[in-house]
Amino acid sequence: MHIRKDDMVVVIAGDDRGAAPRKVLRVLPEKNKIVVEGVNRVYKHMKPTQRNQQGGRLSKEMPIDVSNVMLYSPAAGRGVRVGFRYTESGQKERYCKVTGTSLGTLGPAKPARAKSASH
Asked: Is the pTM of this model over 0.85?
């Protein structure tokens, strides 16, 4: 999955389409879904209990499919497609397909992927 927790994303489909970039709160890779701040909000009706004496309606975000968002690139100023590549040191990174700028590294460096001087 090309989206991680704390990434900024733009919603491209659904009721919340076209809004400003928003933060990813949770990633559910087994279901191919993510929870985005302020997107797909639903009301859960709570009955008064010992813990919650007031009761009422609790608003919470529900998961949306990862295909409905694009990773936000500050360099491009919009949602972009994402590619993966290895740096000179063998570090895997995500990059913006539009501008070519890095969007962050993933995991530890792999010496087998490092580019040697002989190439």
From this structure: no
